[in-house]
Write the structure tokens for this entry.
Amino acid sequence: MMSQIPAEWVLRRILVALDASPGSLAALSAAVELARQAEAELEGVFVEDTSLLSMAGAPLAREIGYHSGEETALDPARMERKLRMQSQLARKALEEAAGPAQVRWSFRTLRGDVVAELMAAAAGADLLAIGKLGWSLGSQFRIGSTALELAESRIPLLLSGGPVREKGRVCVYFDGSTSAKRALRAAAQIAVQDSRIVVVLIPAASPDEARRVIETLESAAQELEVQVRCVELERDNALAQVVTACQGGILVVGGPEPLKRLPWLKAAIREYKIPLLLVRNGYDAHPPANNAGQSSK
């Protein structure tokens, strides 16, 4: 008999990192859909990167256009104007995405180191949503340095390379551990909003171990009153199975250092646009969000 499932996954407030890049807009779309399903509040944050401001003050500083590839002179005043414009675009994107979905929202602009500011802001939220890539040039399939650093932290994170589709599949990796039970609860709470079945990814294991995990899963699913469908991963074909199972949906994973623990996970988010929800142990440690007001600078 399994031990009691960890406390209910409470999603009251989602912090979404915005910089008006395609990656952050994908994260915004995913965050809006989760906020709609959970009736949670959404807070957009734009961080004015002080390293960019310092770089703009360097002699012979140049900027290469993201779309045009053209090189232009850069100075602190020009960078200040650019950051203000990006902040305004980010706020407008949040308003246009959250409004039609009837999601409560607010917005603020911070200044400092991007990762440090986001981690500090996320301390008061139940989830941080961020795009897989920002404005950096390079392969569209790699993970941005900010996203990777946050994925390797202890912050509950929604890492998105694409939207979370309405009524799309909800998948969860389940190995029978306490963190997996918490992830299953999170997946179940997302799925039941639209009466969806949870697709459960079971790790490759010996027959006895696989049977133990499945028995634990069946007991947990009964307690959570959710329907599940199992996919037993094969050691040599796990990535393809995960991509097929999670196509058009979201993947939920619990536990520490998931990118190191699951060899196929980094490849999945590096090469495919699978929204990844990393469930840590601190979801239910935050006080209720303050819902007063709609938007702020």
Q: What stands out?
A: Confidence is low (pLDDT under 50) at residues 135-142, 282-297. The longest helix spans residues 76-98. The CA atoms of residues 62 and 73 lie 5 Å apart.
